Amino acid sequence: MNEGNPESSGREPGSTSRRGFLAGSLAAATAAATAGLSTIPGLVSPASAATRPNILVIVTDDQPKATQWATQKTYDWIAEQGVRFTNAHCTTPLCAPSRSSIFSGRYAHNHGVRVNANPGNLGQNTTVQRYLTQAGYRTGLFGKYLNGWDINASPPHFEEWALLKPSYVDGTYNVNGTVQTINGYTTNVLRNRTLSFLDKAATDTRPWFAYVAPYAPHGPNTPAAQYADTVVPEWNGRPAVHETDKSDKPPYVQNSTSTLADGQAVRERQLRTLLSVDDAVQAFRDKLVALGQLENTLVFYVPDNGYLWGDHGRVAKSVPYTPAHELPFYVSWPGGGLGSGTVDNRIVGHIDIAPTILDAAGITPNTPQNGFSLLSSSSRDHILTEFWKKGTAAGGVPTWASYVSTTRQYVEYYDLHANASGQQAGTGQVLFREYYDLVNDPGQLVNLLYNATPAQEQALGIPALAAQLTADRAA
Fold it and tell me: What is the pTM of this model?
């Protein structure tokens, strides 16, 4: 074949949902929109049935901030004509855990997918696709699902799919249950499959949910042929790339030796690879316009995690430093009031996507979530980020958890790991700690806990931060 991705603590109490006035503003929708609505008790409010938006979630792979140059059409649509969240984070900077948080609205310590090897730990009854399917949505998945997922197995609660085994050219896909090779650049194949799914809205009156997850710009960051030699803007690093004294960092950072040149090379390939994603997003917008569905489609654009371009000597993710967990995060829904090109400075994360989708669709989940709806006035003063080391082999990034606000970050590393079944094991002893003043040291060059005295720790507020981090990890 040929064819051319709330933290329970810190949340303000008594916050109100926007569903009430959004439903009122869209009350003139036709009764036909309720056809096929599930009557699952406690899931869908009848008053919201006629105003349910379509939902498009685009998830890229390993895309850090500072990549707007390659996704300008995406930015012009979803950010400039929607909402740009300036303080957005992945709660676990690793592919499968972060995607499981997107699907479930839960932290990794709750959904159970701590590492890439155990996708089966995700409770499928907790996922947004389960709720939307039961509420009468037409659902589709196009691209990468969860790392470690058997390509022969169908993704639960999707009506249509083209599940990609990660690759860039002539990929292997599970298309609605049939495993096959489809020739062509995979981002373009997924674009075309998604467009075909959207086209069905011309005759199928059900609201739809499309989850689109290209492999780009994950390594080896292979660009499409037409972009293979595209000249990208020059970049000479940032302070953390030029860090010379890492004696205050944990041993794995001290032993990291990636250079500016290494970071520049990865950045160049990532930007070139993202150009095809940008083309696909533009095609989605054009299709929604042609279908007359742009106004009432809720769109998310977000990566699964960020990436370091030589910061602290690393070209990688999985670490607590800001380039690994800070994200571009754009949302648009003109019919729901998210179409005016605004900036939202709240601290948000992957755990907020599912609650927002369910709120917009008028669905009340009967499984717990850690996030809050971005359609509400809810906010938090910090967010938890966390990561688990897989197994006990020497080397690699240790298990860690972190308190992150707009002004400071506190990190603890632990004697813990994810075992063969993905469960947490180990003593839990704290092995190393870091604290950064993000206002005066955004590059995280100076660990203020290194050789700090008890009095200095008290002055920094470390005991309270440690207690909060413990509470967050249990929430």
Answer: 0.91
